Amino acid sequence: QIKRYLHISNINSEKLCWFDKVEPLSSHIRNISKQIYMPGSNVAIDEMMIRFSGRSKHTFRMKNKPISEGYKVISLCEKGYTYTFTYESHVETNQEASSISGLNKTRSIVSYLVIQLSNNNEPVHMLSTIYSIKGNKWKTLKLRRRPRETSSNVVNV
């Protein structure tokens, strides 16, 4: 019965996104994570599942996974530490990530997370993409679908 009266957000505020009820806690976790940990050059963007078995149109079902049903969170991590993250809904688009125009849903979420890195404007290298961030502007260069293990090609962004 106590959980019914436990609120993280202001119950009188207008809800713009489906995850607004937990946004104050999420923002706090993101800010503290960015203050206490600076990731190196080997970062990964991965999906995490938060177990939920109730009724919600925002949950994902992924059989053959340890958590087969729940909310999906896309995160930028390194060595088991989460630097930043964003929520993904099954039916709604992420307004924060979709503000990046000209990209599909997956690339806009990846770009949104990479932009939050404070890496002194150095390029961020991933399997098939190089992200270059200068101030608030970003540039994406797609190299090839399957990068070779050893390559002497140097790409300047």
Automatic annotation (TrEMBL):
Q: What InterPro entries would the database entry show?
A: PGBD
Query: What are the residue boundaries of the PiggyBac transposable element-derived protein domain, all occurrences included?
Result: 1-133
Q: Which Pfam families match?
A: DDE_Tnp_1_7
Record protein name field: 10443_t:CDS:1
